[in-house]
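Q: What does the assembly look like in three dimensions?
Context provided by user:
Components: two
Sequences:
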Amino acid sequence: MDTLILQFLNGLDKGSAYALIALGLTLIFGTLGVVNFAHGALFMIGGFCAVTLQKILMISSVTLDPTKLNFLGKPTEVKTPYVEVFFGKDVGAFIVDWSVPLAIFFAIPIMIGVGYVMERGLIKHFYKRAHADQILVTFGLAIVLQEVIKYFFGANPIPTPAPEAFRGSVDFGVWLGFAPDLIIYPAWRLVYFIFSLVIIGAVFAFLQFTTFGMVVRAGMADRETVGLLGIDIDRRFTVMFGIAAAVAGLAGVMYSPISSPNYHMGMDFLVLSFVVVVVGGMGSLPGAVAAGFLLGVLQSFASLNQVKALLPGIDQIVIYLIAIIILLIRPRGLMGRKGVMED
Amino acid sequence: MTTSRFTRRGLLKTGAVTGAAGLALPTIFTSRASAFTNAPMGDTVTLGFNVPQSGPYADEGADELRAFQLAVEHLNGEGDGGMLNTFSSKALDGTGILGKKVAFVTGDTQTKSDVARATAQSMIQKDGAIMISGGSSSGVAVAVQSLCQDAGVIFMAGLTHSNDTTGKDKKANGFRHFFDAYMSGAALGPVLAKAYGTDRKFYSLTSDYTWGWTQEASMNKFLSAEGWSQVKDVRTPVGAGDFSSYIAPVLNSGADVLILNHYGADMVNSLTQSVQFGLRDKMVNGKQFEIIVPLYSELMAAGAGKNIEGVYGSMNWNWQLQDAGTKAFVQSFGTKYGFPPSNAAQTCYVQTLLYADAVARAGSFEPCAVVAALEGDGSSLPGVDSASNKGLVFDGLGNGPTLYRSADHQCFKDALVMKGKSDPTGPYDNLEIVEATPVSKVWYEPDNEMFAGGDLGTCNNGA
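A: Here is the predicted structure of the complete assembly.
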């Protein structure tokens, strides 16, 4: 039972990342009709926003300590971050410690900017082209972005720890009335799950309750009519691309303490997120979120040793297996609408 | 009005020249036929360094390349000479190899076996490389080693830790200086039993490829010998990213030790996530839960940050050793690049020197002569009583007295047990040496069950 609950939590956690990326993918597909294979790279760039802010906060004044010698027998360099110099030791250390949550505010403008440049600079030229062209060009873009990040940050993962207060684990079982020490779960993963719910809620609220969102939804349903009403729908869709990029970026920022960012982390999520989108139904936002959590949880359950004893290797293929079954039963996915990508 | 510039006389002249050249060219090339592949003809000799320059191990590959460059400089008499000054063999004098200046070409393995074979092949066929070295994965090493055997060039393996490289997949043209999974297990077993007691239950997470398998089997063997028992071994795909669903079942499995047979980014992620799951704060069976990472690398230790505090592992070599060879190498590497070398860099540097030394002693680049020189004169390492203790004995290259065993082309030397430092003073100071396990404790016979099944075969000169 305890293992089941643990794997359920793991599933929600994996699902959070899938859902956030799939949500952005669906937003872009639903608005601009573009299949964006560079979306995983946006997730990765989000992770590196956290790395960059951490590096900025760690910019230090260097003094030489002649009493300690380094490996070459020269005086060691003692580094004091400027934030500690400016704000005092305690406040400075606190800021450095909280660099990952702070990176959220750092990442939002950067990600919207990256999304804007990507859309205006490259992707808009491919709106009228075949989906295969779009996939090729965005996949190429993803590889370019990866290599750029690798050039500046190297190939090794870079540790970006969560704030000290969330670094450990919490006794989740006690909250549910289990014996202590039975269901231990990393605090940051719970934070990640809650954060993703907030972001998903915010995106839906934005689309549902603002005039801007209403226009966008109308545009998703019937682009031509909205255009005929004299609304510049393209500009709004460009903004949506920026928002989708920001969602992927924030998912990446918050994921950085779970898995130290490396240039390849986007690709690991991209393919699975596409399966999530397809299972959820192309163009359906609630479908993407539901499928994200569903597949995350199923993947975690498939990793149970008892399940693997019966079906070896099932954890590696379960997502694709479920995708095949769902597409056989419901060819448009869980919540897919008629007419999407069927012309 | 157009006038042709072609004249009858001109055409005849050109025809005569091209005709002569056309006839002459093939004989120039065919007359070059030599007794072995890529025999150096001019005043340079080309070595091929096949390292990951992209992909997950690119940083480790970059460090290997730095070491190769340094080795080439030292062989050509540039720089401070590094370990040439401390090497027990004095056949090298800083004038290249056999008077030929050393040049090199590089290939990018991408840590993929097929790519690595293609780059090695290209360096052998197009660039005329007479020796291939480098690499950061056992899958790649095994693949490239067999290619070199077939092509008739020498393979001086880089970082490869699977038992198979000099076990079931060993080849006469291939040589490994790096230690292997068996030696890690043999060195770690007693240290772990001393630190954590003899009544422990361990759970293994293992990378699902040749290195992971032999690493797991080796740890299992030596920990069982100390009275530990394995609860379960779970194979994980390479590059899994999120290991949470593999870690969660560990929590209440009854195990009180977790062994992470992972390398690279997998190691960084699985270790970081295990710590986040509170494993190191846990008490199981009345004992403190412990995590072990059998194979350490400095670069990956840096990636794991504070999570490696107090975690045991093993290494082939470390820059903090105090012997003369290590000091000389760290001095010249550190002066050139500004930071200490990794153990991948050391093995690549040493392999290059050992190859050059073997050529110099053999007086020939012919692969079979080089193999014979690397197999040595049958001398033995002191302190090991074994009939297979025969080969080339050398010293001064950072690991103390070392034997290149002729029976399987594997180096035998002390192995290092390492531990994550609790109070690192800088980015390169995150590991400490717990002990240098003497070679007699990590020794095994060539027919050991974990290495059985392969055949060295005979050396191949190629063309």
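Follow-up: Residues 2-60+108-329 of chain A form one domain.
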